[in-house]
Batch of 4 targets.
Target 1
Amino acid sequence: MTSTVVVGGFFGDEGKGKIISYLAIKDNPKIIVRGGAGPNAGHTIRDGNRVYKVRMLPSGFLNKNAKVMIGPGVVINPDILQKEIKDFNVIGRSFIDKNCGIIEETHLQQDSKGELKEKIGSTGSGTGPANADRAMRVLKLAKDFESLSSLIIDVPFEINSALDANENVLIEGTQGTFLSLWHGTYPFVTSKDVTASGICADIGLGPTKVDEVIVVFKSYVTRVGTGPLNNELSLEDAKKKGWSEFGTVTGRQRRAADFDFDLARRAIMLNGATQISITKLDVLFSECTGKTSFDDLSDDAKTFIKNIENKLNTRVTIIGTGPSVNDVIDRRN
Ligand code: IMP
Ligand code: MG
């Protein structure tokens, strides 16, 4: 039995979606379960020529043998969820907990203007206002909606039972460590704790049941919206380096900076990381594109990875070398 938690180590958009879809296929977990905030998250997954942009469904849905679930701590936009289940053909194996909070029109309206939008640079997805209503104990939950009844399952019971039966469970976080409401760059953060402990609380998995925590870092740092970003590059310099990216949910240009060892060290601590995943190595070292073996990397790329391992005292086990699900170096064994 292995429970593996995957979380972002910087400000989200580290490429977790692709790493999770790789693990979902490779490790064949029985259940892939999502914690985190809500549809403010966006994961891009490429399978061959097909590109999926997911906001609600767990990114591991590419494994057709797995059940995908959303934990009770997550707020759901039912329209987005139902559309993704249909469009990505995940019908019959997608489930939510009865206690998932539901985003309604009023939350979308509150999120599209004012402080949240202008000062914090929120995604406008209604996630923050829905979580605020939840704290006030007025938010409606999934169990209050007849239209969602066929999706409801007891998520904490299902995942704990699967682990008791020696099955693998893959747990996916959203956003990144420094967008955490507790540990991030407050007030420029999301409306939840999104570190590994928070993600586990979202899905109902106790701390003694966690085996592996993989913290995902991109080879450089990006941030969308406002808030501090140390050593931020000008948009022009970011573009020159090939680091100009655009958000999956909002389409906004992401701000960029070099890999930040101080942030990374703190992320390792806050999440209790047992492993590190580094994504987009091919963006730093184009000669590494599509490589699947560490030995085939260039010396510069090897040095970059080894330096991370030495400075952070944690093994880099999974390395992304391209956008496709199989552009991965897996050094876990
Ligand atoms: P909110 O969670 O929509 O309120 O946004 C709060 C801050 O977190 C803003 O700076 C957003 O850009 C950022 N944010 C929220 N979700 C994500 C994500 O999934 N990836 C990257 N940034 C995010
Ligand atoms: Mg994203």
Note: The chain has one domain: 3-75+155-330.
Target 2
Amino acid sequence: MQEHKTAVSVFWFRRDLRLEDNHGLYRAIEGDHPVLPLFIFDTNITDELPADDARISFIHKTLHSLNNQLSEHGSALFCIKDEPLAGWKKITEKFDVKAVYANEDYEPYAKSRDNSIHDFLKSRGIPFSLVKDQVIFEKAEVVKADEKPYTVYTPYRNKWQDLFREERPAPYPSDDMHSFVKLQFRFPGLSELGFRSSGIKVPDYKLERIADYAETRDIPALAGTSRLGPHLRFGTIGIRTLVKKAESYPVFLGELIWREFFMQILYHFPHVVDQNFRPKYDGIAWRNDAEEFERWKEGRTGYPIVDAGMRELNSTGFMHNRVRMVVGSFLCKHLLVDWKWGEAYFAEKLLDYELSSNNGNWQWVAGTGCDASPYFRVFNPTAQQQKFDPKLDYINKWVPELDSTGYPEPIVEHRLARERAIRAYKKGLL
Ligand code: FAD
């Protein structure tokens, strides 16, 4: 006798781990079948990560809470760990899948994964719908009058705001709990998935901070930023809901627009993933001194603000934006280490790691990117510290041995490093 399979529409959670204001989920709910909520721990990604990766712990905790919400209504999350195509073959054998919905992901790996899943589902006659969710404007929605992409932030922001005033996308009512299929699945523990809990936790975001954001955002000791990074990365808040709250705070809104600016740069110029945005910088002879790079990573450069930032990153998975700029500039210019080394280290450590933002900002500090800081602008770490941490509140927290003999001498003298950087950049310009 043939086993009866339940007819479902699948909603595939990826970087949108919430039930509220979720566009793809809303579309699935609007469809003709009960919705099977699915998450796949993608082994192509997880195999590259350490077992105690803090982002995996956060994803697992968030999924657990989603599963609890679903269980209260007689449903459950179907959560597996697999290579996506292999996983989808099993899913289509287990269920009578009528349609698949997901939110679009614009990173190169995600695009190629979705293409292959699309082809597979098509071969089984199953439609796969991808919709816009993680941004207000995607792909080529914000372009110049001649339809070319913007490569400078300010005109991009102006156009973004013009379009936003016309469209104002509202949050999606996607949390109708009656639409989920009434099936039970056991939710896997972290260790069953091959991971263990990380000591680093993702803090909750602090939306109340956006009220004073314009005044406090540049002072690392004040913790005046929203800490939304990982929540935007993994979609534990919907962008439409957020922008609605951010609308009256233009400085803060401007940062959310930077996020979309770099996303569209990655979309239009995918070469930035492993090349300079501006090829004329390809000739820079990086020193790439491995020992100096280690000292930078460990926070032992002898420049207190650089060391404080790196230690904050290593201990918490977060670093304040002002300090990210200082440590990034220091690595590329003072030490003449290729920005790709710094980018890769941040990708490993940051809870809010986002390919487009990390790449865009690293290329910005290195001077190789679109709308980048000019190459001859070399941040003076001491002047930055005097301006943004004058009482050493931030530095004392992370570098308690500052005044002791245990603290290293500067790895390089600022004036010499600055001149060396300008020479190397000038020489390397093609
Ligand atoms: P807030 O200041 O409260 O800003 C709110 C949100 O706006 C952020 O969460 C982020 O989504 C967005 N945002 C703010 N500043 C930027 C910016 N300059 N570029 C793009 N988006 C921005 N941000 C990431 O999200 N992921 C990264 O991997 C990342 N790497 C960076 C690397 C370098 C070298 C530098 C200089 C910056 C990087 N940033 C990155 C940008 C910025 O530092 C972080 O977004 C911010 O510090 C996160 O803290 P928050 O959520 O409290 O930000």
Note: Residues 217, 225-229, 232, 255-256, 258-259, 262, 321, 324-325, 328, 346, 350, 352-354, 357-358, 361-362, 365 surround flavin-adenine dinucleotide (CB under 6 Å).
Target 3
Amino acid sequence: MPEPIPSRAAAAVRHLRPDVIAMAPYTPGEQANDCIKLNTNECPWPPSAAVKAVLATIVDDQLRQYPDPVAVRLRQAAAAAFGVTADQVLAGNGSDDCLTIIYRGFLVPGDRVACPWPTYGLYETLAALQGVELVPVDFRLDGAQWRLPEALPRQAAKLVIVANPNNPSGTVTSVDDLRRLADRVEGVLVVDEAYIDFAEADGRGASLIPFLDQHPNLIVLRTFSKSYSLAGARLGLLFAQAPIVANLAKVKDSYNVNVITQALGTAALIDRQTHLDQVRRVVLERARLERELTTLGWHWPESGANFLLCEVGDAAERIYLGLKERGILVRWWNKPALRSKLRISIGRPEDSDRLLAALRELA
Ligand code: PMP
């Protein structure tokens, strides 16, 4: 009699890496279609018409053949859009892929990664996978600002990662502070600019990309998941000095960005005006939502992102669940630093209206 499948599967699990069996998985925000989704910071509007038109131009041969492994056209478009050279750009299957490539390329078991805390949870998951230690250093809370901890560069870490704006706080660290940090870290500074377009909507520079040439130990990440409305297509970009890019390209999956995404991303980078308009719409709606939430007596750190981390106190979990019952998803974490807060993504004006009506009911 053959062994029943479940017990054979259990036996096979024992061959998995013990650290993988022991680790906690990264938990993304819930995905659902039949609700108002204010929990994963996607853009509430569709991608531009120019980007959608590209979908119809994909021909059989492009689908039949492998994509360009090094995404030349996309990287050239990125170089033109961001004022760098194409050999300073690497494309990833989302910026999560860019992060994985960085961890794989730089870190060996026993190394340390430091980041101000709390921040994007994937930095910790990737550390567990790579057998390295994540050193969280608490942000310095200063009124509506979350400031970089003084001790951040002194953690003997090979990588220091700062999300700017930070997720989940939305707070922005100044270019000057980040450049000082780049000068002080012993290893490499990674600045994850997933939400930077919303911080730059007022025309003020917040990105470190213009300073790449002055900081050889700097890596900057961008994503198309937020301001470009392409989270489903999965596209991220990594910017660094050419020798870093050339070496990191060795550790990526050969065809890590698919043919459709390369075409969509290239079109999105060329259609600058629609992108700027989209970002402005989000920022305008953020300002309106902030005015309305103020009338509820809520507060949050000053946000340069497309979300607000609202301080709600003991009611946070109840309100999160109450909103969910009413078909509105926001993000709540059952973790000491975040348990009293709700992170709310900026949606369309009608989404904000539904949210506010539900919050008034739940208050
Ligand atoms: N960095 C930060 C700070 C994020 O919040 C996110 C989105 N959760 C990502 C990176 C990942 O973005 P992508 O969809 O490009 O993988």
Note: The pocket of 4'-deoxy-4'-aminopyridoxal-5'-phosphate is lined by residues 94-96, 120, 163, 167, 192, 194, 223, 225, 231, 236 (CB under 6 Å).
Target 4
Amino acid sequence: MRIVFMGPPGAGKGTQAALLSMQLGIPHISTGDIFRANVSAGTPLGIEAQSYMDAGEYVPDGVTNAMVRDRLTHEDARPGFILDGYPRTVEQVAELDAMLSAEKSKIDHVIELTVDVDVVVARLVKRSAEQGRTDDTEEVLRRRLEVYAEQTVSLVEVYQDRGLLVQVDGLGDIDAVTTAILSMVNS
Ligand code: AMP
């Protein structure tokens, strides 16, 4: 099963993708987590990504696409995966399509977690305090939401047109959201 999670920053994609990953036994691939791990380790990729992340901007497609392309070749991703935070641009959609068609595979479901922006801001400010993320200050956060609106929200329609989109209210109780997603992907 190949699943893509969409939704604005703070919608709960990471939490739900991790829970679904355990339930379905397929890896949770978060581009944000991979970037953060590289930033922490001080790799060239991390050094390149950090200034974009700290400003709330997207890391350039060339860098991001190469990273995902590499990750999807790992053995654990062969039976399926849950992508969290990718694709985020029209170019990334095309790139993902190309990666999958080369393997004669395809996306099965795109899950959009829908949320109210004010609730998202409150959630992210809380998460920033808990996790010490440097890209969750209020100013950067507003930029991240703007970038999502400018570059990513239109992808929802792309996947809707393909008949792959499932919309789930991301504001419910965590377990209830997971149950709702599981029943949809299993039906
Ligand atoms: P996330 O944890 O998914 O919110 O990602 C944190 C940050 O990593 C984003 O604000 C971007 O700077 C960068 N990032 C993650 N995924 C992507 C992507 N698909 N394309 C470009 N930048 C990304």
Note: Residues 2-186 form a domain with the Rossmann fold fold (CATH 3.40.50.300).
